Batch of 4 targets.
Target 1
Amino acid sequence: MLELSTAVPYAIPMKTRFRGITVREIPESRAQDAATRMAEEAAAISAAIPQESALVALDEGGENIDSAAFARHLGHWRDEGLANIIFAIGGADGLSPDLRRKAKIELAFGSATWPHQMVRVMLLEQVYRAATILAGHPYHRG
């Protein structure tokens, strides 16, 4: 299974058949200015994304959706036969506009700014919840 990134910035690839999740860190850029840092981090993430993938950008400006809608997105991409879903969590400066444009969807966990470690935990819980929703398991009662 492909690994992507998680430190600063984070990306979590998930096999769309829900067979596994791998977390890989991409080193934070040490460039002097924010635009260069975001561009370097975006290039590193982009280089690691395989063909036949759906990119999901997690960004505070993204769309707020409920768990059932999140599950529908994952189920749709699974049914399309996409090999991987890549979740990218930006570094301290966020994700580059170019990388966000490549995403099939931009998501947010509310309008607040969250520490990267919290976003990772919330994302993993939502992926688990989505898998149970798609499987018809009673874990999600919303």
Target 2
Amino acid sequence: MTALRNVAAIVQKEWHHYFASPIAWVALFVWTMLFGIFFYFGFTFFLEQSMRVAQQGMQYPGGAGMKLSLNEYLIRPVMQNMAVVALFIAPMLTMRLFAEEKRQGTIELLATSPVSDLQVVLGKFFAASGLYLLLILAGLVNVALIWTYAENPPEWRPVVTGALGLFLLGSSFLAMGTFVSTLTRNQIVAGILSFCLFLGMWTLGWADSPTAGPVLQVVAYLGVTSHLEDLVKGVLDLKDIVFYLSVITFGIFLAHQSVESQRWRA
């Protein structure tokens, strides 16, 4: 219980810093604004296509019963677009976690406090991932409106699995960004290095191809976007969940080892 209280105290401290600075408010504004924009244009496109199909159905009675899927035309593209936004938002949430502590000299206070290095790393990661989860939930308010007003609402499963995939993808970025933040005392450097790392993790998925050899298939499997496709389609595959959890665990492990090595060097 003491370990949980220590982690919770770190989370509370980090959330205080997030909302006492512009970081959380800017992230919330940017995320909800872009989510709303993507949702608006996606919904407009869906309505246009639905009207076109309805007109064709009137001309050709055989196609009158055809209905477009909200999940395919709206939910899936919005989730995929927000995954790109997560690529830019994640460095904002992690760049200060340890870099700011080093710059202000408060990292020594943490090192001498009765809190273990792992508890510090977990507390900071959970704080960042908790704020990221808040962003996702704020964006999903747009989707919730569909169930209120649409005569044929979308299936709930792709929405849930898509949001889960978006959270796991972002959490993978946050775990690796937490590690990067332990390497420098400069927030800007930490943010730039984190973005470059996230972009590299993203582009690994581009190696996926029907003609790819065994090596490229392994490289493509390590790409974070390769495991998002099925989730946004509503397919919950255990291998995708295990992959993201493995990346998160690896990032936390690296951050813990980095913090521990710095304590011994000090």
Target 3
Amino acid sequence: MTDSYYPGWRASVDGRPAPLLRTNLLFRGVPVPAGSHRVRLWFDPLSVKLGFAVSAVALAANLAGLALYGRWLRRGALGAGGAGRAEVR
């Protein structure tokens, strides 16, 4: 292949994991025995998985913070009759 080598690429030959090699210092290569075979390449970087996990934790923390803030406001944490508290009739 004349595609650039980059960490995170995975390969399989006939459904079995295969090593992905750096060839000619820049390209990707997969050793394939003689004959007809199915070679599959896919991009599965760890950075994307870590980014998704960090984003999910940040989203959960923000939602929890908003819920707690809303609860704090409903309980009148700003003080009875204090600035910022509106009374609804």
Target 4
Amino acid sequence: MPWRTAATTARSGTAVSVSATYETGPVYLAASYELHKDVNRTSDADGTVLTINGHDYAFDSTVGIADEYGWRFAGQFKAPTRTSIGGLYEDLRRGVSYHYYDERSRKAVWLVLSQELTAADIPPRRLCTRVQSPGSIGEHNIETTPGADTSTNMVTGMFRHAADDQISFYVVYAIQANHPAAHYDLGAGGRSITTDCHDATQIAAVNPVDGTFSAGGPFCYPGGTLQAASVGMTYKF
């Protein structure tokens, strides 16, 4: 889920969640639901007004606090050839009266294919697609446009070698292909190591159109294609 640099309020009231799993032989199934009451995102609500068919829709406290909820279904099958095929579908919603500024609601599909080469070598591949949100919060250099393409696709690959029951080594590669108005990131979320948001706010910027100077650069870079690779070791106690 995309973050906004100035989002100092993302608290909620009561949170309720439930999940269930079922496993038999090579089949694994899971389902879950979660509800967060009165999620406060009023720091995103900067008073922007969008006029649609002669009617004004303000980005204010009216849509700044709302319930957020979602559900998820997943399944995986492991064939006798040591091939695992799985998938996941999730649907996240924000209960607001209009969605022109709603970038939280979205659907996503996740697919995984894994083939064990040996008992110690496993190279899974994953594909994740997030369908566009109904709105955009329009922060800074991201425009608030109804129907803006905020969808994204991510493909990952990993090779893991288990030295024994406790130690394993891995190599991971990922590519995140954002559509023009999307700013999904790779790596840790929030204010940690990110590349599309939060990394330019202290950089001076010049508007190429009129040459005006700004002491702070853009908060987010929508539409980028991000790539990353990492290597590591896991030790199980």
